[in-house]
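Can you please make up a whole protein chain along with its backbone structure tokens because I've never seen that pairing?
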Amino acid sequence: MKTTNDTAAHGGDVRLTGITKKYGSFTAVHPLDLTVPQGSFFALLGASGCGKTTTLRMIAGLEEPTAGTVHLGDQDVTALPPYKRPVNTVFQSYALFPHLDIFENVAFGLRRRGIKSVKKQVEEMLELVQLGEQARKKPHQLSGGQQQRVAVARALINHPKVLLLDEPLGALDLKLRRQMQLELKRIQTEVGITFVHVTHDQEEAMTMADTVAVMNAGRVEQLGSPADLYENPRTTFVANFLGTSNFIEAEVDSTSGSEIVLKAGGGKLMLPEARNSAPARTGGKVLLGVRPEKISLTHADDAGDIPEGRNRITGRIADSSFIGVSTQYVIDSPVCPEFEVYVQNIDRDPRLTPGAEVVLHWNPEHTFGLDAAQDIDAGVETVEEEVA
């Protein structure tokens, strides 16, 4: 899949050209062309075994590509060992030296290069990661989030062109992980160097990254900004892996101007042509997708109050879960057996309980169309996968 744009001046870009990695007969990374622009926060996102860490390790020089080249700026680094590449890597295990204090952990790279006067640089770096007052503590005296920031400071003090982050927040609890997401984004914005971040956590990638490459089975499924990937998924894998999507198997009834009319369950639904990535032939099949939070839920008794021009389907509430900020409903509908709807808890209708007849309706602009030949469940994480 081609996902790169050539530019006249590459500067601190990371450019992968035809990069491939095979282990015997198994292909971990299929031929990949990818450009990470200088100064950007770039995320490689995917489930375990998708090839994201292998790709990162090939940039770092920790894995040798089977084929293809790695450029950092205008320099071909494919054959260079890790220590000769202008990159530093931060791993999930922070690998801090337990016998050294925080100051000396950060200073380690400078001292190893024979630099005698390190005080000013180390103090500036500790201020950047907001740990100036912790300089003389040992790693075990810091929280997990603080230790992570020490690891980032130790990597950044070497002034790499690129900082590689391999699941750096995986060992932290949820609240601390969210704080660190914002912290890492702030640090990247301040130092302005290229960050390439590997994660399996969709929220993490979408919170921090300017650009996300969603990987699946050694290939990039889709590349784009978090908002673009979420609003305009081009495959069922991306639609399911980034959040939740409802899919309706529909048939093309007609096309008129900028809209496609679809038939499903005896009713008709509208799909903007600009949001359809499937062949739109009359009589052909399309997977119509809509996100749960885009849908409104109205009790069947009030169906007459729904404005004209909205997509609508009928159903019965099968289940509901109150989760504070919203109530999540599962609707049994003729066009989709388990249609999910998230309704913000602003004015709760007490009639919306399991067994109630309802109408689901939404703005057609929030509908997207995908090729019906795809697996509807691609990218859906199972409990077994999460445990693994």
